[in-house]
Write a structure and sequence with these properties.
15 helices; 8% strand; mainly alpha; 289 residues
Length: 289
């Protein structure tokens, strides 16, 4: 379709060529209409102006936008955002000759009703205020989701609200969490916030050096401890970042105090099942060790 859109000026100025293409495309079926730019819709209008042979499907709520270049009279250019709704509006003009040909589908066969209710709820809360919890408990499809809404531009508020929800999860659930940001500009501040709150995380933002250094450093801990089991700082880091479920700060403090009283290294302390039980380390963490 990208190559076809370049035909638009040719078809506009050459009726004979246009007629050939109109005969070539006898019927046109379009999926994901919201992904079409207005220029592509104009091409379709040319190809189908003699026949009512378009069937198009799309989701107007996705609101996809396109980057285009608008050339000024002095030869300069600028980036222009065009909402996908323009594609729907332009194509819908064909209904002036065929009333009732456009239909809004109200039954969704791809998602459960819970997902549809969830999406409807989010759209209704666009102009809302502070954090909101959506539903609670269970249904036949599992746990109901939680929806958080924070003020636009308040990354600190958003991160705090998210961490507050994570704190309510079980230890195993906490290890499978992922935070997805819609703008890379949010990542540096988010990293700093997570570090300030002593929240362990792995960064996957395309900056391979940062991403690899985090894991290389943690992998080297095993080699360091093989060489020298007395490296308590490395053993502490291994407990904090490499053992799942992760050891909480209070647990590590308890183990270090016990090791100090017994005159042992931290490695020797966690190697003893007796000392683990005395420090109230969970069975899952002991099994991981």
């Amino acid at each position: 379709m990208n190559r076809l859109s370049s035909l638009w000026p040719i078809l506009r100025t050459n009726p004979d060529i246009l007629r050939e293409y109109q005969r070539y495309f006898e019927h046109i079926i379009i999926d994901e209409l919201q992904d079409f730019s207005p220029a592509k819709v104009e091409l379709l209008m040319l190809l189908c102006e003699k026949h009512a042979n378009i069937m198009a499907f799309g989701d107007i709520f996705q609101e996809v936008q396109f980057d285009t270049i608008h050339t000024q009279g002095d030869g300069s250019s600028e980036n222009v955002k065009i909402p996908a709704q323009a594609a729907f509006a332009r194509l819908a003009q064909r209904d002036t000759c065929h009333l009732g040909k456009a239909h809004q589908l109200t039954i969704n066969f791809r998602s459960t009703q819970e997902i549809l209710d969830f999406a409807t709820f989010i759209r209704s809360k666009v102009n809302g205020g502070t954090a909101v919890q959506l539903w609670s408990g269970q249904n036949k499809h599992g746990p109901k989701p939680t929806y958080l809404y924070t003020r636009t531009g308040s990354l600190v508020e958003m991160v705090d609200a998210t961490l507050g929800q994570i704190a309510q999860l079980s230890a195993s659930e906490k290890e499978s969490m992922v935070l997805i940001f819609g703008d890379k500009k949010m990542l540096p501040q988010s990293q700093n916030l997570l570090k300030e709150r002593n929240f362990p995380f792995a960064l996957m933002d395309g900056q391979k050096t940062v991403y690899q250094l985090h894991y290389v450093k943690n992998l080297l801990l095993y080699l360091y401890l093989i060489e020298d089991r007395g490296r308590d700082d490395d053993m502490e880091r291994l407990l904090r970042y490499n053992i799942v479920p992760y050891f909480e700060k209070t647990q590590i403090i308890a183990l270090k105090k016990l090791a100090n009283r017994k005159g042992l290294t931290l490695f020797e302390t966690v190697a003893s099942q007796k000392f683990l039980q005395e420090s109230r380390i969970s069975k899952e963490q002991s099994a991981s060790l």
